[in-house]
Design brief:
The structure is a single chain. The chain is mainly α. It is 70% helix and 1% strand. The protein contains 15 helices and two strands. The chain has a two-stranded antiparallel ribbon with strand order 1-2. Helix 1 packs parallel to helix 5, helix 4 runs antiparallel to helix 5 and helix 12 runs antiparallel to helix 13.
């Protein structure tokens, strides 16, 4: 019992406190929005931009203030927590390296979420729209990857979703990964293990470095946009006109595919195509209404809608008829060093004759009627 108590305290001090992680997410969003929310008010933006201070210096001042509002209380509470652990007799649970690694990793993920919050606040001219766009920025890359997996499973007979595909999807959301990582390692029993049934690989250093790059890039982009942002764009949905079209296209394509997959799962293949149209049209209407803050804009930009539908259907038809040759592709025989005939790579065969036999089976599989095999349940994966 004592050893288990020490392990629990060590986990809490080493980055396993979910209340702290939740607070970091809330602070990253609140500070990122609040420190630049004056951009959404015509009265406030005129006052701030009339001050004898450059745009760059104003941005840096606000940006660093938001970070300090979180970092200083975080450090104070961390010191108090460590002192309490020693004072209550749990000093043996303290691991300096684990505490420092937790501090570094959580600050990197906080900065990523915070920088994205600032970026969306600068891009938008309305606080509510900023929060909606921020949610979209954090969740849509992960969900888009999951939708792509769904499309591959629907159209490609030889596609097999491995756990690494779902793990990669989860890596695209810093909010999810904040609850997935402890220090420089992935948390056992975390989000990935719940969704895939398997633990993540040990080190998270590479992912943290990638998020640090994202944080720096988002900060630099926010600074550049902040400097060129027109003050009179306060109060509009999107402060930069050129952002509207690509953002709308991505949303329409995303929601079109989402509606299509849901309709297809519920009612069959025909309704997949109906869902594509319904999802795309509804999203286009909603986005146009939000952009203009006017319900009369529901039928605006009809040419955009037609082109988006054409692109979406062209992409789906390319997958349906396997224009890229996905179902018939095989790696070069000379590049293969081992095979596993049960598909999960649990037992690898490296003998040349086994590789030749498995390769021939793969060729036959590509030539066969895969749909008929699936209907009979008579198929096997080869890794």
């Amino acid at each position: 019992d004592w050893q288990r108590a020490l392990e629990q305290v060590a986990a809490l001090l080493g980055g396993g406190n979910f209340f702290v992680k939740t607070a970091l997410v809330v602070m990253a969003i609140v500070c990122g929005v609040v420190m630049f929310a004056y951009l959404h008010s015509r009265q406030k933006v005129d006052f701030y931009h009339s001050l004898p201070i450059s745009r760059t210096r104003l941005f840096v001042n606000n940006f660093l203030t938001g970070i300090l509002l979180t970092l200083l209380p975080y450090l104070v509470m961390l010191v108090i927590a460590v002192a309490c652990a020693f004072g209550m007799g749990f000093g043996a649970a303290f691991d300096g390296a684990a505490v420092i690694s937790a501090l570094v990793s959580q600050m990197i993920l906080f900065l990523t979420i915070y920088a994205l919050s600032v970026l969306t606040t600068v891009i938008c001219g309305n606080t509510v729209i900023s929060l909606l766009l921020l949610a979209w920025v954090h969740l849509s890359p992960m969900l888009a990857r999951i939708l792509f997996i769904g499309l591959c499973e629907k159209f490609y007979s030889t596609y097999a979703m491995g756990n690494e595909h779902m793990q990669f999807a989860l890596r695209l959301s810093p909010v999810v990964e904040l609850f997935e990582i402890n220090g420089f390692s992935y948390l056992s029993g975390g989000v990935t293990s719940v969704m895939t049934g398997k633990e993540s690989p040990g080190s998270a250093v590479g992912l943290l470095l990638a998020y640090l790059v994202v944080a720096v890039a988002a900060t630099a982009l926010a600074l550049w946009l902040f400097r060129i942002r027109r003050s009179e764009r306060a109060g509009v949905a999107i402060a930069f006109v050129r952002v509207k079209l690509p953002l709308k296209v991505f949303m329409c394509l995303f929601m079109g595919v989402a509606f299509g997959l849901v309709f297809g799962m519920i009612a069959g293949d025909f309704w997949f195509w109906v869902g594509l149209v319904i999802g795309t049209v509804l999203t286009h209407w909603i986005v146009e209404i939000v952009y203009a803050f006017d319900f009369h804009a529901i039928f605006g930009k009809p040419l955009h809608l037609v082109v988006i539908l054409a692109v979406l259907f062209a992409g789906m038809l390319c997958m349906k008829f396997d224009v890229t040759g996905y179902d018939t592709w095989l790696p070069d025989r000379n590049d293969i060093q081992a095979v596993s005939v049960n598909g999960d790579a649990s037992e690898m065969l490296s003998d040349e004759s086994n590789i030749d036999a498995a390769y021939r089976l793969a060729e036959i599989g590509c030539e066969a009627n895969a749909d008929a095999l699936r209907e009979q349940g008579n198929y096997q994966g080869i890794t």
